[in-house]
Amino acid sequence: MQDSMYSGLFGALTNEHRLNVIANNLANVNTTGYKADKLAFQDTMTHFAHERIMQPVLSLRDKPLFPEAVHMARPRIAESRIDFTQGSMRKTDSPFDLSIAGEGFFKVRTPNGDYYTRNGNFMKRADGTLVTSQGFMLLADGGEITIPDNARITINEQGQIFADNEVAGQIQLVNVGDPKQLEKYGQNLYKLRDKADTGEVAVPLESAIIQGYLETPNVNVVEEMVNMIEAHRAFESYQKVISGTQELDEKAIQRVGRAT
Known about the structure:
Layout: H1 3-27, E1 37-46, E2 72-82, E3 89-91, E4 98-101, E5 105-110, E6 113-117, E7 123-124, E8 130-131, E9 137-140, E10 143-144, E11 153-155, E12 160-163, E13 166-170, E14 173-176, E15 182-186, E16 189-192, E17 200-201, E18 208-211, E19 213-215, H2 221-259
Antiparallel strand pairs: 1-2, 3-19, 4-18, 5-6, 5-9, 5-14, 7-8, 9-10, 11-12, 12-13, 14-17, 15-16
């Protein structure tokens, strides 16, 4: 099989993965606090061992020992990361809708452990605790947050919750040392990788919680559509490389067969 077949195969597979990522970004254009995934690709050149041998050596021979160097291109994903840039704010006027201006995450408790989220669409359960739309509990510095019934709720930029001007809790706003150590868990949640080099750190002083607003996703629909067209055309080009290589192989086999 010719090298071009492998190059076409790897190129088609990487662009198929890129199309899946773009489709997922577009599917979440209305998901509160969603952060887009970004991919970058490059050609990885495979080097042969003899390319590192300097030839010719005039004291030994006057002709190269090996033929000209040959490189084989193998398209690969060079970078895969979550884009944590700030999304715009959408006003809702709901006292339990919160957004984060700047760095940081809300911390919520699930049956599988504690996770991070930028989705501030919270609601009050019958027992007074604040939870996400999936029922995950919003954490305070001392544990759960309980809101009294029929109280006027205000939340300041530092995350302090006031019920009729009395402190009812402190929202636990956290940050991580390196956002690249975070991975998506599902349901708009994030967790630290198993072998993360850094953990939770203090939230920057300029970060603030804004009550009555929700953070919109940072997905640029026009940009994602352009990327989808580009990836689709690249995928078709690699398909042509594969089919063209196959046709050349078939012709070579037929001609060799006739010659023998």
